[in-house]
Amino acid sequence: MKGKRNLALTIAAIMLTSLLLIGLAACNPATTDSGGSGATAAPAPGTTDSSGSTGGDTAPGSDLPYAYDPGKNVTLEIMGWNNPGTVRALEAVNELFTAEYPSINVELNLVDTNTWPQFSGTKLTTRDWDIMMGNGTNPILDFVYLTDGSTGSDGQSWIRVLNEGHSLDITDMPFVDNWNKSAVETGMSYNGRVYMLTTGFISINGIFYNKDMFAANGWSVPNTWAEFAALCAAIREAGYSPMTGAGGDSWPVGMMMNNFIDTMEPDPMAFSRGLWERTRRWDDPGGLAIAERIAEYLSFYEEGYLGLDYASANGRFIAGLVPMIAAGSWDGIDFDRDCDFEFGYFPFPGDEAKTYPLLGRYDMSYHAAPYSANLNEVLLWMDFLSRPEVYKIYADLQGMVPTMDGVVLSDRFSQSINHLTGDLAFSYQRMHQNPEGMDWWGWQEGLWWYIATGDQTAQESAAEAADAWERAMDALDAALGG
């Protein structure tokens, strides 16, 4: 797709925004006026207030368990981490929301990703928030256990948030029906109940490529790993480095390591279970084959990539200096804006000659605090985001694969991968959890570093990862008296 954001798209967005400001009142929840600013917040749906009513103020003729009170001035807090695309999307939605509900202001309380675990833990303890960002639901890892004695799915942090009562059950909220049924079941639910609105799916197993360079040099998109290796050799023969990546930031390259388990292991979940049950090791024959392929893959990167940060690596692809970059699908919206050449995206190939599906995870979900003093207004916000015309604006700015039927993103990159989005599946990244206390080098997103720096061979790195895993498991079992 050509770079430079389409002017017509910008004009259309402005027109749609204007129409929303003027016309969305027709589909609002009914409005009630309490006659003052001291109205008591609505109880959680399914609970009963002192008057015996259930689920909040509902206007006559309305069956919604929430309603707008123009006499109540409220500031909602959305806490989360700083993700540029999502911030753009939230700012646009919040501006529209406040235009429609003038007495409700929405503020973003955001921190960087490194600070998020401590920040969110404190906020959950103090219960001082209204809406919280999350990453959607993940596969249930019933083989995981922790030193505090919790086992199975209880050991997963996202499930702990639910079990500890930090996320409102929104199963019976009418706006849930607006979302894709499969996304609701696999990306928003736990034990058959819905606890969040999950607004996108991201792929982490794709490679962006410069179509103009491919066409000029007669290169073809590979369908197998052997074809990919041959392509990289041909690119080198033409005088280019095959690909770049943000090795200096580590995670953009590290997350790609999951793809080798996804494409080389017949059952990635069984591989994860095997690590926990000690029937598999990173240096067993299958694990060693993965490490060796990682070493081959890393040899395709350009010289100096270990010193590149995220923006610099993306900038080199945008500038046309390298023909490929392995990156998450979320980068597509920025490439669509900034690249002056046609580009495409293909899933990581494996040994089989087939089109591999997009693999990744659900991302950017929103939880309602069941103990919020502003729960009525929180539900109004969720209802507003769930309107297709509002979600379309949000999704266009966020740049993830939509989780609402009938919503297709406006950028050409997203339209170009629509044929790949019908078979979304979880990446191994979402099937893996480290035992407590394991050092960073003992798993798939860490073991690549020593290979990349030349400090270890693939065999040595696999052995290092296996030993780190065993040490952590030994310590875990010892803590549990095993």
What features would you describe in this structure?
The protein is an alpha/beta fold and 482 residues long. It folds into two domains: 7-201 and 364-410, 3-Layer(aba) Sandwich (D-Maltodextrin-Binding Protein, domain 2), CATH 3.40.190; 206-360 and 427-479, Periplasmic binding protein-like II (D-Maltodextrin-Binding Protein, domain 2, 3-Layer(aba) Sandwich). It is 38% helix and 12% strand. It is built from 18 helices and twelve strands. The chain has helices at residues 7-23, 84-100, 116-126, 157-163, 181-187, 211-217, 225-237, 251-254, 258-264, 268-277, 285-298, 310-318, 332-338, 375-385, 388-398, 412-416, 448-453, 458-479; strands at 74-81, 104-111, 131-134, 189-190, 193-194, 197-203, 206-210, 243-244, 324-327, 343-347, 359-368, 425-426. Strands 1, 2, 3, 6, 11 and 12 form a six-stranded mixed beta sheet that branches. A four-stranded mixed beta sheet has the order 8-9-7-10. Helix 2 packs antiparallel against helix 15. It is globular.
Q: What is the fold named in CATH at topology level of the largest domain?
A: D-Maltodextrin-Binding Protein, domain 2
Low-confidence stretches: 2-62
What is the number of strand segments? 12
The CATH class designation of the largest domain is Alpha Beta
**Name of the CATH architecture of the largest domain:** 3-Layer(aba) Sandwich
* Rg result: 24 Å
Number of helices: 18
Q: Tell me about the largest β-sheet.
A: 6 strands, mixed
Overall, the morphology is: globular
Fraction of residues in H or I helices = 25-40%
Query: What is the CATH superfamily label of the largest domain?
Result: Periplasmic binding protein-like II
Number of domains in the coordinates? 2
Distance between the termini: 57 Å
Strand content: 5-15%
What multimeric state do the chains show? Answer: single chain
Please tell me the overall pLDDT: 84
Give the class from helix and strand content and strand pairing.
alpha/beta
Order of helices and strands: HEHEHEHHEEEEHHEHHHHHEHEEHHHEHH
